[in-house]
Amino acid sequence: MKPYHYQGCGLPNVYLTNGVKESKTQYGPSITIDDIEGLHGVIADQLVLKTSGLSPLEFRYLRSYLEFSQKRLGEMVGTSDQSIANWEKGNTPIVRAAETLLRMLVREHRGGNVDVRQFVERINEDDRQERLQALTFKQSKKTWRFEGQAA
Question: Which of 2, 3, 111, 147 has a 20 to 30 A CA-CA distance from 83?
Answer without folding.
Answer: 111
